[in-house]
Task: structure prediction
Amino acid sequence: MVGIVVLTLVPISVLAEGNRLTELLGDLQFTLNGQAFTIARSPDPEARLSDDFAKTSRICPPFCLQPMQALPGVTTLGEMEVIDFIRGPLSEGRGALIDARLPEWFEKGSIPSAVNVPFTTLAPENPFRNDILVALGARPLGGGAFDFSNALDLVIFCNGAWSDQSVRALRALQAAGYPLDRLHYYRGGMQDWLMLGLTSSRPASSRPAAATQGSDG
Amino acid sequence: MIRLALLYLVVVVGIAAVITGVPWVFRGPEGEPVQLSDAADPMARLRAASDGAAARGGTANALGMVANAGESKPVGVGAIPLLRPDATGVEQTTAAILQDLALLRDGDPEQVALQRMSSGAIAALNGLRGQTARPVTLEGLVAQALREGQTDAYIDALVNEAAGRGEVSVPAGLVTASGKVDTAVLLAGLVSAAQAAARADLQPARHPALTAPVAGTESRIHLVQEGDSLGAIALKFYGNMALYPIILEANRATLSGPDRLRRGQELRIPVLKQP
Result:
């Protein structure tokens, strides 16, 4: 019995190419609202970063380095903690993985199962900011007041340590009254996710026919 | 499609003009001069535009939407509506609805992008919890109902039910002294904005920033009544609900927000002047 439970919670599928997330975890396969996702590392040991994420020296401002601690009270996560979050709160319907970048970046590829909530939509200048808070699980009390006791746990990421979009999203949520212990910062963002060869998703509509994994030449 | 919708609009507004009597002229999209009502009492004109059309399907018909809906169902109104953040204007709402209905071509690109991104985010977040697809904003809700040809009464019930449950946020300027969402003023504003958009299609673009009126030194007093919203008061006195911030500003001492109207409250209504 216990063995079965462990197998479903910790799926260890041996990839033919042999790459794994950790010694104990081959890859992560999960279903969210009827949609199946897989997170694995590329089996190609020669794979390299290309295009946008091969750049090292984007100019600050605006591409300035972000601190490890985004806000006091907000936990910073690495990749394995993000995966734990997916297996835990996200799969149990208590959390959301938030890609805080603008849609054109999200369309190019994101962490599988992430939801695009651009950082600009969380600012009070957005007329729909409060609608988004409700979608995040805040209970409206009338006017601009909310009860956040059932609000979702959020992991927020952007392009990584050279982008301030996650931090802006976190600050905006803090200003809106979102409880800080429900907020988590994946500082590595897409830069580190791709650098580690982890699966990137694209909406089906924009996915080219050819496979996207591995190096092109 | 747009031409057909505008043609409908012109015809319906023309009928309203006959009802209210005093003529003014603009050229319809087909190039024929069309008699329309005077702008002297815009509230009456807009009410007439929307009331006159009500017998034939309300605002949906006035805007050229297909009327095929059943009767409206009575719905209970919930608690205080979910409000938008400060300084969110009503005119953004009308512009977004008209754009959704393809009656307005160019909106403020920043607002358009914000609405698109927000709707996408809300739909995706709702999807996480398996909630079915439905319009997720006030604008989406009203646009869909108009497209379905629903009556004004149905739209009023629909909007107040959703806002009362906190499912969609509403601009504070549309909240009445009794805590309802003033859909009558929103729908009248839609007809008026659609007319303006139709005229703008035929005339060189004007720059609203150059002609926007400001508060003068003289003012009148308005006694707030049950059912008044700041948008409705601005429409009544200025013929434009988007100008409600002028009234709000003039009454800062006694009015903390556009949704804070009290019945019996005295409001100072500045007489407008051109800057």
User: Anything to note?
Assistant: The CA atoms of residues 86 and 141 of chain A lie 30 Å apart. Chain A touches chain B at residues 32-34, 93, 96, 102-103, 115-118, 120-121, 124-132, 134-136, 139-144, 152 (CB under 8 Å).
